[in-house]
Each structure stands twice: as structure tokens, then as C-alpha cells.
Design a protein that fits this description.
334 residues; alpha+beta; BirA Bifunctional Protein, domain 2; Enolase-like, domain 1; 2 domains; eight-stranded mixed beta sheet; four-stranded antiparallel beta sheet; 15 strands; 28% strand
């Protein structure tokens, strides 16, 4: 029995693929319920970063923007992960000490399910599941009062190219105080199975497996729960403030060379998603004092649209002749 105290376990398999809603769902049942819960859920393509991570240090934000991939910050620590509909997520929520919980009692039933499919699954390190030396599952946890949440991924048939591109940060020189993701050899479970299986069959099998080892009862999200979860999704998990602005403080350097203009370099500090310090260097020409431009951009969100508007309002051409606002602002996200 993976739950303590033992008793009935609500088994929730829901159809929402909205990452903001699904992460809000986890927080709601962690903080607002006293029931033991297992959730099985999937997200549309998205990147889910750990609570203490800096998106700009961890991700290729240009690739993410070009492919319209949302970035959502979760409650738990750990590294950034890529989700799509061929990745299955599971969540355990239970009463406990409220402190750090051992992963093994929760991960072993998942590994056992994989072994039942003919895979040589084993726990590795503190919070991973490996098959044939490849990582197929990473896990993390969070706590609220006397309740614990442990959740993880199962890479069934994820687009590994998208995973690799999205989680590869740009080579911007960045010193950050966030938690860096650890690169791992990953593989899709589908390619390791001895017999073919669809994602729906895989989900149904895990659902039945949990039902065989716990006193599971089917759970549906009630109308009142749905309203509260959607409110949390809208007011927290869909916001720039939580997903990007909540990042740990960091500093960054970037440089560019512009034909007919010369070199332009920026060094900037960001705290709570706001530029708190900025120095601009280079061999460019301009009629205005560069310190005035630095002042105009300090206190602005580290967000492309916000910085673009501030640079245009400041009259960038007066300070760096021959460079457009768009070209200049890209240095902050290079």
C-alpha cells in the first residue's frame, strides 16, 4: 500500500489537456482536499519548469515562441520537462508528515507496472525510473501542511526532437540563481516494449494496475471543484507573473554586431521578472546620453513587448543610431 494512512483512494483520470488547468488541479487537491488521490493526466505540447527555475536559463525561448509552446511553472522543484499528448503524467496526493517524502514507495508501483509489460524498469538515483539504462520517468514533490504531492512523467511516445530543442538553452552568457536541469539520456517507452501498444492502452493498463494495489474509487471533478480549479488556473498558472516573473534573480550578458553601426553589448540584472540594473556598451554612435536609455529600460518587465514599447518611447535612435528597437531588444533574449 503506497498510501498512509490506508483507505480509499480517489482515482481521477481526466480529459483536460490544458497545462495551466492541470497544474491548478494538482494544487487544488493538495491544498483543498483531505482525500488520498491518484491522478492520470496529459498536457498538450508545453514546457513545465520547476518551482525554482529560470526559464531563460533552461529553455530555448526563441524556439518555444516560434512554436507557440506555453511555459508553465509547477509547484514542485526539480528540472524542466517537455510534455505532449504522448507523455503520461501521474500524481499521488496523500496525508503524510508534510516534509520531504521518500520517492521509492510511490515509484515502485509505477516501475512494477512497466515490468509487467516486459520492460526491465528500475528506480535510479533519488527520483528517476530507467529502462535499459534510459530515463523514462522523472519525478518531483511538493507539500502543504500535512499533505504531500508526488508526481512524475512517463515518456511513452514523446516528440524527442521537440523535447531536445525546447529544453536546450540559447548560449546567452547568464549567471542565474535558479536550479539547472540535468541532461539525461531519455527514451520512449513505446520503442522499448516487446509488444506494440497504444497510448490509450498504456493509460488503461496503468489505471487498472493502480486499482489492483489500492482501494481505488473512480473520481470525477465536480462543478464546484472545476470552478475553483479554473479560477486558480486563470489567476496563477496562466499568468506571466507566476510562470516567468517568479523566476529567481539572474544576470545576463549579450552582444551583437550591426552592419554600419558597430557593436552593442548589454549587461542586465533581473529580479521578479523586472530589469533592476542595465549597462549598455559598444562602439556605436548616438546623440543622447546612454545612461538615459539605461534608466528608461530599468524597471521594465523582462518581456519582449514591454521592452520594445519602452525602447520606442525612449527614442532609441537618439542613443544608438541605426539600430531598430526590435534589433536591440533581441539582445535581451539572444
Amino acid at each position: 500500500m503506497i498510501f498512509n494512512p490506508s483507505g480509499e483512494v480517489d482515482l481521477l483520470v481526466h480529459n483536460s489537456h490544458d497545462p495551466a488547468y492541470n497544474l491548478a488541479c494538482e494544487e487544488y487537491y493538495l491544498c483543498q482536499s483531505e482525500r488520498n488521490i491518484i491522478m492520470l493526466w496529459r498536457n498538450a505540447p508545453s514546457v513545465i519548469i520547476g518551482r525554482n527555475q529560470n526559464a531563460y536559463a533552461e529553455l530555448d525561448m526563441q524556439y518555444i515562441a516560434e512554436h507557440h509552446i506555453p511555459v508553465i511553472r509547477r509547484l514542485t522543484g526539480g528540472g524542466a520537462v517537455y510534455h505532449d499528448l504522448s507523455n503520461l503524467n501521474y500524481t499521488f496526493i496523500t496525508a503524510g508528515s508534510g516534509g520531504f517524502a521518500a520517492f521509492a514507495p510511490f515509484l515502485e508501483p509505477v516501475a512494477a507496472y512497466l515490468r509487467s509489460l516486459g520492460l526491465s524498469a528500475e528506480l535510479s538515483g533519488r527520483n528517476d525510473i530507467l529502462v535499459d539504462g534510459f530515463k523514462v520517468s522523472g519525478n518531483a514533490q511538493a507539500h502543504h501542511k500535512n499533505r504531500s504531492l508526488i508526481h512524475g512523467t512517463l515518456l511513452f511516445d514523446v516528440k524527442l526532437e521537440s523535447l531536445t530543442r525546447a529544453l536546450k538553452p540559447h548560449p546567452m552568457k547568464l549567471s542565474n540563481k535558479g536550479i539547472a536541469s540535468v541532461a539525461s539520456r531519455v527514451a520512449n517507452i513505446k520503442n522499448l516494449l516487446p509488444e506494440p501498444m497504444t497510448i490509450d492502452e498504456f493509460i488503461a493498463g496503468l489505471k487498472n494496475w493502480f486499482g489492483g494495489i489500492s482501494q481505488c474509487v473512480p473520481k470525477e471533478i465536480t462543478a464546484s471543484e472545476n470552478a475553483a480549479i479554473q479560477k486558480l488556473a486563470d489567476e496563477k498558472y496562466s499568468t506571466w507573473t507566476w510562470n516567468i516573473g517568479h523566476a529567481p534573480a539572474f544576470s545576463a550578458d549579450a552582444s551583437g554586431y550591426f552592419a554600419g553601426v558597430g557593436s552593442v553589448s548589454v549587461h542586465f540584472d533581473v529580479r521578479d521578472g523586472i530589469i533592476t540594473g542595465l549597462k549598455i556598451y559598444g562602439d556605436f554612435f548616438g546623440s543622447g546620453e546612454i545612461a538615459q536609455l539605461e534608466s528608461c529600460l530599468t524597471g521594465v518587465r523582462h518581456e519582449e513587448d514591454a521592452l520594445m514599447q519602452a525602447a520606442e518611447q525612449a527614442g532609441l535612435e537618439r542613443y544608438i543610431n541605426g539600430v531598430s528597437a526590435g534589433e536591440f531588444i533581441r539582445l535581451f533574449f539572444a
